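Slack export, channel: ligand-projects

TW: morning all. Re-posting the request from yesterday since it got buried. We need the structure predicted with the small molecule present, not the apo form. The ligand is pyridoxal-5'-phosphate; the SMILES is in the block with the sequence. No rush, but it would help planning for next week.
GE: picking it up
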Amino acid sequence: MGVGLADVPVLPLDEAFALTAEFKADGCAQKVSLGAGVYRDEQGDPWVLPSVKKVRQQISLHQTPNLDHEYLPIQGSEPFLKLARDLILGESLSPKGNLTSIQTISGTGANHVGAQFLARHLHPKHVFISDPTWSNHHLIWTIAAPNVTRKTYPYYNAADRSLDFEGWVATLEREAVENDVVVLHACAHNPTGLDPTHAQWKFLAELFRRKKLFAFFDSAYQGFATGDLDLDAWAVRHFQEVLFGLEECPDHEEGPSGLCIAQSFAKNFGLYGERVGAFHLSLPPSTPTSGAYSQLLQLTRAEISNPPLFGARIVTTVLSNLELRSQWEQDLLEMASRVRNVRGLLRKEIEHRLGSGSWSHLESQTGMFSYTGLSEAQVLRLKNMHHVYLMRNGRASLSGVNESNVKYIAEAVSEVVSNEPE
Ligand SMILES: Cc1ncc(COP(=O)(O)O)c(C=O)c1O
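GE: finished. pasting the full token output, ligand included:
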């Protein structure tokens, strides 16, 4: 038998990052990137949020020569964690909950440490992941929790481009057992841009309580979906109230063993490369958090020792200063409104060229992405013939659209729709 690493199988590249590399290497002047899930301004450039720029000035070496670069504690920055918790749960709910939090390597790290922790200590039989989803969910659970069986719940009706709520509920009713984990996108579902209504979230929360399912909220787009931080956190806060009796529970029935939140500050602060995030675990009022906290610390110690400082410093400064916070809320609104605006423009331009068929889904979907409904063959033709890049499943990151390229993109989409059968 061979010794060594010569036979290690070569894996395919990650699609999102491979697409970005291909785009960068493309020499065509008219090329358009609708692949990466990052915000771009009207000129197609990365956008450093004005609120973030102000903080960067404040914490420059010149302004604060005594600022050091010491290690954070294993759990991360306590002021950051409190502000992060208040942001997602609201200042009225967060102090009442039985919560424990650690700082993570952005949303990915929070998903990863959450999966590891739950696999070791909750021992769910299954984890349910939406079909489709952010592809890293599958990878994370495969690698961090190999003993938990991955299942999917239907999320999308391709026929009418709607949320498959009935299919979702029926799957959980039929297949989920006590302590199973269900990964939920808190808002701006990636990739479909379809979120449940408040009534549907309420229905789900009752189902989770009755079946004692563990809700794993992935919150990567708070404030980015609608421009309203509270609205984008509505589902998480509702579950928190319903599951842990902060709302009157008439039958005093015991609910699930907990819920958790993987929180990212990559998109809503434009701090993609700084890797700022948090993992929050919320337990029923009678359950002590000390054991869970100590285990989360150990997982963190083994993986990263302690989280990075710079991005957390920026987020903490913005969230704790009234003026900066209000600037940040304006920044969020600007990003959300620009994406909403180009949704309408692109729809109009495509419908105008095609003459028939509705592209209303471009406008009705929410957040950074549109699940365009383009087939894989059409996506390939868009790239090869027109230098317009999007994910194979037809997901387009709409922040790559602007007033200067919208006609070019619409022309390209109309050409492939007319000439490339689905
Ligand atoms: C649904 C979802 N969860 C989590 C993330 C994590 O992102 P990050 O690790 O950059 O915070 C993303 C990023 O695209 C996402 O779309």
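GE: first-pass observations. Residues 15-48+336-419 form a domain with the Aspartate Aminotransferase, domain 1 fold (CATH 3.90.1150.10). The chain has two domains: 15-48+336-419, 78-320.
TW: perfect, thank you
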